[in-house]
């Protein structure tokens, strides 16, 4: 219950109004994450749709957010929480595009990168006092039904300071909806996931 509470508190200012559909992994400390997000179709207008992979600490969440509020998709990196930091760089994408994302840490500084169809963006964020202990793949939807899926991630790799054999096969989630996690494998401290599919809730 506490874990869910922390997830809900730190991910967004509109937390109480949002509907959440997630797939999650927990480990003592994550140090990197990468993968390929297939951009879904654009949801109906009038609400606030966010789709994102991210790494969460007790102080906030590092995210690559696919933002559909304008009726088109824009993706950009940032950290929501404490410290309060300016949002990072990004670019517009279209349904069907593949966006490669990475999060890597050196000391307390995270570097987030995005690339798709020749477009690139990189953001560096100093996040002291944050131990990233949750990897999240989320659809965060306010006044938008989850009927624009599937949301698909391919070639996901998550690395922690502890052996992946202890956490790679253990997932949690928020929301009542069908999802699949295909072909997970642990090697050293890295969990490789062939595919994550988040299907429509309605």
Can you walk through the features of this model?
This protein has 202 residues and is mainly beta. Helices cover 5% and strands 54% of the residues. The chain has 1 helix and 13 strands, in the order H-E-E-E-E-E-E-E-E-E-E-E-E-E. It has a 7-stranded antiparallel sheet, with no helix packed on it. A hairpin with a 2-residue loop joins strand 7 and strand 8.
Task: List its traits.
mainly beta; 54% strand; 202 residues; disordered N terminus; globular; 13 strands; 7-stranded antiparallel sheet; 6-stranded antiparallel sheet
The structure class reads: mainly beta
Query: Number of DSSP strands?
Result: 13
Write out the strand line-up for the largest beta sheet, numbering strands in chain order. 9-8-7-2-11-13-12
Q: Tell me, briefly, the overall form.
A: globular
Largest sheet: 7 strands, antiparallel
Which residue ranges are poorly predicted, with pLDDT under 50 across at least 5 consecutive positions? 1-15
């Amino acid at each position: 219950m506490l874990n869910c509470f922390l997830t809900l508190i730190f991910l967004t200012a509109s937390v109480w109004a949002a509907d959440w559909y997630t797939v999650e992994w927990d480990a003592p400390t994550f140090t990197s994450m990468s993968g390929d997000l297939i951009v879904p179709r654009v949801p109906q207008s009038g609400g606030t749709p966010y789709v994102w992979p991210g790494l969460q600490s007790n102080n906030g969440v590092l995210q690559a957010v696919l933002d559909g509020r304008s009726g088109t998709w824009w993706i950009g990196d940032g950290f929501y929480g404490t410290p309060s930091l300016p949002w990072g760089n990004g670019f517009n994408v279209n349904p069907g595009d593949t966006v490669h994302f990475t999060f890597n840490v050196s000391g307390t500084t995270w570097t987030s990168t995005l690339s798709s169809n020749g477009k690139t963006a990189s953001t560096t964020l100093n996040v002291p006092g944050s131990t990233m202990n949750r990897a999240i793949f989320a659809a965060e939807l306010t006044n938008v039904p989850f009927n624009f899926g599937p949301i698909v991630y391919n070639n996901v790799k998550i690395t922690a300071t502890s052996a992946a054999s202890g956490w790679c096969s253990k997932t949690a989630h928020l929301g009542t909806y069908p999802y699949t996690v295909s072909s997970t494998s642990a090697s050293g401290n890295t969990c490789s996931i062939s595919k994550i599919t988040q299907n429509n809730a309605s």
